[in-house]
Amino acid sequence: MLGPSIAWYLSVAGFLFGTGALGVLLRRNPLIVLLSLEIMLNSSNLALIGFARHFGNGDGQIFALAVMAVAASEVVVGLGLIVALNRKRVTLDVDRLNTLRG
Amino acid sequence: MIVATVGNVLVWAVWIAAAFACLGSGIAVVSFSNPFYSALALIGNLGSLAVLYLLLSAEFVAAAQVLVYAGAVMVMFLFVIAYIGPRMESPWAGGPSWQAVGAVLAAGALLVEIVVVIGLKASGRLAHSHDVGGGFGTPSYVGRLFLTDHLLAFEITSIVLLVAAIGGVILGAHSRRAADEVPSP
Predict the structure, then answer these.
(1) Among B39, B106, B170, B181, which residue carries the largest CB count within 10 Å?
(2) For domain A6-87, which architecture applies?
């Protein structure tokens, strides 16, 4: 395999996952929380495809495509929720959306 | 021999450029205060990830990444951001500061955990990759896997997409009815 070994790809995936987790935990705008979630999903995709290449087995690529489809569905529902909140004139701040809190 | 060395250097150069673009745009997504700029940075992140997929000989997944993510999903994101209107928010503002400190600590702990688990479990087995043929990762290869070994996953994925589409329609219709009931000021 030309170029860097699989460990380099995995470290990029790990750092990317940490960045996305930081965004999900830190930001209060639900749009940016969704964007950070996309980063986390994509970093797991990178790890899956890296392992698929490493073991010479295509199943990881299939899993990555399934993750992509699930991410697209998640974006549809999340953006639908954000638009519905915006129509109800609710402030788009995940700290203030606490009416469902038990 | 010389051809292999030049190829190796070339792949390393492309990898370094793509990896740093990937990490930099990821940090940019988290740290921009304007969600519009965050979405644009995420497009760069997805594009550089597609380059990394190409280096891992996953041609079909790279093409699907550019089409599905950078094409469809990000257009939807930008459309919703334009619809809602930009709402600036500093990454560190709002809420008590211990929340920000806790978020940074939790993300760092997660990163350390990933590194330790992968390093302990797979050390020594990550050095030598299997050789793959030229057909690895091509659309025909992925399609054959999808329609033979992973047929159930393929069908379930289509059901998930259908349910998400129905959910999006219901959310939109419901919120429109609710907006109509709000008396105009």
Answers:
(1) B39
(2) Orthogonal Bundle (1.10)
